[in-house]
Amino acid sequence: MSLCTSLSKLVVVLLLAVTSALADASSSESRYLLQPGDMLEISVWKEDGLARETMIAPDGYISFPLVGQIAAKGLTVAGLEAELAKRISTFIPDPSIAVILKAASGSKFYVIGKVNRPGEFPLLAPTSVLQALSVAGGTSTFADYNGIRIIRSENGINKAIGFRYGDIEDGEQLEQSIQLQSGDVVVVP
Q: What does pTM read for this prediction?
């Protein structure tokens, strides 16, 4: 096999790997739900006066010229673009809106207790309890693997969800490896 053929095959393999990685990143970004604290850059094509950098307020809303307050919390970037386009179309026919997520500062989870790196972590893509434990460096030597709890606040009410690592490790009760939500606290006693 010639050197050119080998290099061509290598280039094709690298291009496929890069394309796959970009598709994965784009897919997780399209599933990300906007949260208070997230920083956005919004622009309307051919309307320089409408370009804004804005943060989603604690109540989940953003303010934008011509349309006022818009609920952004819980929308995807594409969903917010569609909502802005719908509202601005009253003033600008067939608007082209671009929303860029500059910083996903609002969506976080926390891991505390007997882990190697407790702290606050960004929730940029769907993350399970096992993945959260991995991000926190795993459990420490004397952790109670079967006493792990996820503290979740729903409508102002806190609830504890049990997680038994030993069952997951044995391949049982896999349904308990739930996806974390913004604000969840994983407690490892």
A: 0.60
Radius of gyration of the chain (CA): 22
Three-state SS sequence of the chain: CCHHHHHHHHHHHHHHHHHHHHHHHHHHHHHCCCCCCCEEEEEECCEEEEEEEEECCCCCEEEECCCEEEECCCCCHHHHHHHHHHHHCCCCCCCCEEEEEEECCCCEEEEEECECCCEEEECCCCCEHHHHHHHCCCECCCCCHHHEEEEEEECCEEEEEEECHHHHHCCCCHHHCCECCCCCEEEEC
Q: How far apart are CA 137 and CA 118, in angstroms?
A: 8
Domains along the chain with CATH numbers: 39-103 (3.30.1950.10), 108-188 (3.10.560.10)
**Each residue's pLDDT tens digit, 105-154:** 878 899 999 999 999 998 877 889 999 999 999 999 899 988 999 999 88
List phi, psi (to 5°) of 44. Answer: -120, 125
Quote the CA–CA distance of 83 and 61 in Å, as a whole number: 13
Q: Are the C-beta atoms of 85 and 78 separated by less than 8 Å?
A: no
